[in-house]
Design brief:
With 336 residues, the chain is an alpha/beta fold. 40% of the residues lie in helices and 21% in strands. Strands 1, 2, 3, 4, 5, 6, 11, 12 and 13 form a nine-stranded mixed β-sheet that branches. A two-stranded antiparallel sheet has the order 7-8. β1, α1 and β2 form a beta-alpha-beta unit.
Length: 336
């Protein structure tokens, strides 16, 4: 059966989150198809879904493919015009879907959008992974309307206007299925972290738009699969940041990679000064694995370059400089 929209939750050992948040998803998403794709969980997730949520379609994946590969595998089994990708640790609110669906219904050139993401444990504040829309500086550092580095702004309605953005968060992302597959879906080599930014960069290169719709609101716990301080998460963030830049950067790629690596080492030295040697080792490993992957990344870059029609709307300043040296802590202080 072809659905207009399918809500697809990728789950890995998230039984606690499913118990807590899936009933709210079902309550506020009546009339829409809900799917949970299980990434070979070892907890009670599958039995919980089978016994307590029989109305939810369950897709069982043979192993943990990560966020990128897991969604690619699962979405091949979902027939819908729109995919709503939703983390298991997200609480949705009444009327959360309609403004986003209306936006995509009205403009075929918008390939993806996200709602306003607020912090579940601090509901007056924006949440780290998306806030009110994602952006990228010219060295590939992501930031949000409402979040620069670790500074989270209080939501006072200052970013309530729907507008184009650079990237939409994978925590809650509405995608036009046709465009998703035309662009090859997520890059499964990323495994997790920044694959949605990489996808959105490819959308921009194809002349498509990405938006935020703040009239839709959800609340994100964050760190549901990997805690922020986990060395594996540090590794993936630094490695995938470099990979994304190598794949998608339109010009001056070598210089930007060199600058990015120097800043990475500054971050590593900061970790060492705080006694966090595992994080510094994760950065070193991310660089080693990037050098090992140059040939594969070059092939991906050539494929993207061959099909690129438009330049991506990057923030043409260095966020590190604006934040740490010019003391611009809020998105509204940045000059685009």
């Amino acid at each position: 059966m072809q659905h207009k929209l399918a809500i697809v939750i990728l789950n890995y050992n998230g039984a606690g989150f499913l118990k807590k948040f899936l009933p709210t998803v079902l309550l506020h998403s009546k009339g829409y198809h809900v799917v949970v794709a299980d990434n070979a969980s070892t907890d009670e997730s599958v039995s919980l879904l089978q016994n307590r949520f029989p109305e939810v379609e369950l897709i069982q994946l043979a192993r943990n493919w990560g966020f990128a590969g897991g969604y690619n595998m699962a979405l091949k089994q979902v027939s819908a015009n729109y995919y709503l990708l939703l983390n298991s640790d997200v609480e949705v609110s009444s009327g959360w879907l309609e403004p986003m669906v209306k936006l995509l219904d009205g403009d075929a050139e918008i390939a993806a959008c996200q709602p306003k993401i607020k912090a579940y444990h601090q509901p007056d504040c924006f949440e780290y992974a998306g806030a009110s829309g994602g952006f990228l500086d010219f060295l590939g550092y992501p930031f949000c309307r409402g979040r620069l580095f670790d500074t989270l702004e209080e939501d006072r309605g200052q970013y309530d206007i729907a507008r184009p953005i650079f990237w939409a968060t994978g925590a809650c992302m509405l995608l036009r299925a046709e465009k998703f597959w035309q662009l090859g879906g997520f890059d499964p080599d990323f495994f997790a972290h920044m694959e949605e930014i990489d996808l959105c960069w490819r959308m921009h290169a194809a002349g498509l738009a990405v938006w935020v719709v703040p009239q839709s609101v959800v609340y994100h716990v964050g760190g549901g699969t990997l805690a922020k301080e986990n060395p594996r998460k540090t590794y993936l963030n630094f490695r995938n940041g470099l990979w994304m830049l190598i794949k998608n950067c339109e010009d001056g790629m070598a210089a930007k990679i060199g600058a990015r690596m120097m800043l990475d080492w500054a971050a590593a030295l900061q970790f060492i000064s705080k006694g966090n040697f595992s994080a510094a080792q994760a950065i070193l490993k991310s660089h080693i694995d990037t050098f090992k992957s140059v040939e594969k990344l070059h092939k991906k870059r050539q494929e993207i370059k061959k099909n690129r029609c438009y330049k991506a709307p990057l923030y043409q300043k260095l966020l590190v400089w604006e934040y740490f040296f010019r003391k611009r802590r809020y998105f509204s202080q940045l000059k685009f």
